[in-house]
Automatic annotation (TrEMBL):
<dbReference type="GO" id="GO:0008270">
    <property type="term" value="F:zinc ion binding"/>
</dbReference>
<dbReference type="InterPro" id="IPR002893">
    <property type="entry name" value="Znf_MYND"/>
</dbReference>
<keyword id="KW-0862">Zinc</keyword>
<feature type="compositionally biased region" description="Pro residues">
    <location>
        <begin position="119"/>
        <end position="128"/>
    </location>
</feature>
<feature type="domain" description="MYND-type">
    <location>
        <begin position="139"/>
        <end position="176"/>
    </location>
</feature>
<protein>
    <submittedName>
        <fullName>Programmed cell death 2</fullName>
    </submittedName>
</protein>
<feature type="region of interest" description="Disordered">
    <location>
        <begin position="110"/>
        <end position="129"/>
    </location>
</feature>
<dbReference type="Pfam" id="PF01753">
    <property type="entry name" value="zf-MYND"/>
</dbReference>
<keyword id="KW-0863">Zinc-finger</keyword>
<keyword id="KW-0479">Metal-binding</keyword>
<dbReference type="GO" id="GO:0005634">
    <property type="term" value="C:nucleus"/>
</dbReference>
Length: 203
């Protein structure tokens, strides 16, 4: 621990500043959907299931933590996922309710300019992305990889049956197949029960 310990404190995000929580601004944040850094090697639904109860872990937080002095860690983010089941923290044994994924990129990469992002909001509305730039679809509920599609409209994507059922109940059954429902993540607060919604108030 040559560099000592750095403490961070969570503060509620001003909805006006929601744009700062997008990937292009390299945020550290608590709750909401992950703002993925790179697009390669994202954890799939299987990797995100709790090793104990097999339910999808929820995104807890991400930390932007670049390592100076190294070419390959010019950008570096850590993503922490946690099971919401309290019982899973009491059970002994290998695997567990928490997991951490690391994503890192050199300064010159195919996702971001080499210079820091401008200190001003991007033009247009800041909707949660329904897919990665590569076209890979993200779950409408949690923002993780969504390889499963709604069987009716084939546009809404999900990480698994749990989030598909949740989205159906919270409104997709009414909007499925309608022109206004393009399949991306709906705006508005994240549903409780399966994902953390703490300070990411704009989501
Ligand atoms: Zn669990
Ligand atoms: Zn999901
Ligand atoms: Zn549908």
């Amino acid at each position: 621990m040559a560099g000592g310990v750095e403490l961070g404190f969570a503060a509620a995000a001003d909805p006006e500043d929601a744009w700062r929580l997008r990937s292009a601004y390299f945020p550290s944040k608590l709750g909401g959907r992950p703002a993925w850094l790179g697009e390669d090697g994202l954890p799939g639904p299987g990797a995100l299931r709790c090793a104990r109860c097999q339910q999808p872990r929820a995104f807890l937080l991400q930390l932007y933590a670049p390592l100076p002095g190294r070419h390959d860690t010019f950008h570096r983010s850590l993503f922490v996922f946690a099971c919401r089941g309290a019982a899973c923290y009491r059970l002994p044994g290998p695997g567990g309710p928490l997991c951490v994924f690391r994503s890192q990129l050199p300064r010159r990469n195919r996702f971001y300019p080499e210079e820091p992002p401008p200190e001003e909001p991007p033009p247009g509305p800041v909707a949660p992305p329904g897919r990665l730039r590569s076209g890979v679809r993200l779950c409408r509920v949690c923002g993780c990889l969504g390889p499963r599609a709604c069987g009716r409209c084939h546009r809404a994507a999900y990480c698994g049956t749990e989030h598909q059922a949740l989205d159906w109940l919270r409104g997709h059954r009414h909007t499925c197949g309608q022109a206004g429902d393009a399949g991306g993540s709906p705006a508005g607060p994240l549903p409780g029960g399966l994902v953390f919604k703490v300070f990411d108030s704009a989501m």
